[in-house]
Amino acid sequence: MISLYGGTGFVGGNFRKMYDGCIEMQRDERKPKTKDILYFISTVDNYNVHDRITLDVETNLKVLCEVLDHCRSEDITFNFISSWFVYGKTPYMPAKEDARCEPTGFYSITKRCAEQLIMSFAETYGMKYRILRLCNVLGAGDQKASRKKNAITWLIDELKLHHDIKLYNHGSHCRDIMHVQDVCRAIKLVIDKGNLNEIYNIGSGKPTSVGEIIHLANHYIKSKGKITNMEPPVFHKNVQTENFWMDTKKLQSLGFEPKLSLEFIVKDLCL
Q1: CATH number of the domain enclosing 47
Q2: Sign of torsion, CA 92 96 102 107?
């Protein structure tokens, strides 16, 4: 049994559906009901700074500390879902778990700060932890997909509506992508077999260009919308790295390999 925080989001909701034994914590609950914790609570992009400047701090740090306040025990294992955004604009690809993190943007910075708070808290009170840094997670059913969050899904949705779309730099920038079901499988594997007090990259371990994904999607959709180019806005350049993918050797050492291909992912998004 595991106490699941944030089980209504895209990845957390899929994990809850795929695996039994999850005790879903309510929004106002802080004290875990089991010794094992899986924590998804988080904001989802770097854009809150424009209209809700404290939201990333309140959600990603304040709520986390309120939960940690009930975890002052060596019996607790805290499995924290983090993000590839913590790496920031690291020039070294694929990014390894021990790479220097230089995040930019309020979401990215608070996710990295949350990791550091967990590690410090664990050192102080003996709590065990695992930190899982997720890649770009794709798949049908992401209700919060927008041009700010999971933009690939949003762009494909726009093509399905036969709307024109614009790609930054012709879609040349690369991301590490994986289907949400594979991501959930990887999370479960790390919880079951991963070493304690370790960081794990959760991804495919290879780069895929956004343009390749979008043009493959349009092959299936045959949209009447036009795909054109645009220069990325300054803010996007400030908070997003141009190309990113992960080193996943640690995850592979546990026996993990993605099952679902790029074609499957794109077809799932096109349905």
Answers
A1: 3.40.50.720
A2: positive
